Amino acid sequence: MTAAPDFELEGVDGRTHSLADYADADLLVLVQSCNHCPYVQAWEDRMSAIQREYADRGVRFVAVNSNDAEAYPEDSFDEMRSRATRRDFAFDYLYDPSQGIARALAAERTPEVFLFDRDRMLRYHGAIDDSRDEAGVTTHYLRDALDAVLAGREPPVAETPPVGCTVKWRR
Amino acid sequence: MKVELLFWEECPSYPEALELLRDVLAARGLVDGVELREVRTQEEAEALAFPGSPTIRVDGRDVDAAGAGSRPALSCRIYHLPDGRVSPVPTREQLEEALA
Question: Fewer beta carbons within 10 Å, N or C terminal of chain A?
Fold first, then answer.
């Protein structure tokens, strides 16, 4: 079982966020994310919906963009701030220019979800659900995992293949 | 009629786009003559004016003219659906219109 990596990253809210800042959260969802990917864009409203729905159950949802913004300027910090405002993100959106979080998580795709429990141990990893088209969703992997862990059970599925764009590593 | 599908291997959407394209071609009684072209480098993307994967051109015309002028890049391409959502593949209607 993997422990949540420590981090200290600037958010689009202008504050620096660390893992310790989320100590009050019962569950922490880290999502490898970005701006430019159509898969992220297809899922981001669901990301906000999950944060809003689970906020009063002690769940914090944190998206992290580690993409190389020189090669993909749509993923720059300025563009992150702009998109978060425009799309009214309900979750924290952090910038990882060193790509340290992506490496620590061994993330491969955007979006890619990592659900950590109260002890900040990984309990679910993979896709948010089984369809980029919300109307086609039949299995809500992340919601099912959140419900299970909040109830003290094992997630029905602990791992699924993330579907999305590749993390854009610096060359 | 020349039908090309340009793709970048790291973006997972081109098999779905290819299947949809072949389906639309078959429904119109057209023999599958899709020319597949892999784009491997940023230099190739720029030389081919490749705005993302997948890009489908019919006789050289992009099936989504609105997105054709985007910055050439090795990335997944964004298609805007009529209802405002985004998709990594074009719609069947876009393909049918381009092939009409």
Answer: C
